[in-house]
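Subject: sequence -> C-alpha cells, single chain

Hey, anyone have a minute? Need the predicted structure for the following. Not urgent.
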Amino acid sequence: MSAAITANPAMVRMLEKMGFRLFGKPWKSGIHDNYLGLFLKLE
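Reply:
Had a minute. Here:
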C-alpha cells in the first residue's frame, strides 16, 4: 500500500497501529506535491 506521508500523517499513524511498516525511501508524487511511502505488513 502506498500513502501520502506529508499530506496525511493521520493515515501513517493508522497504518502503523495496524502493523504496517514504512519500507524504502519516500518518493515525490508525479501528480501532486506530496511525498509517498510504501507500507507493507509482513506476517
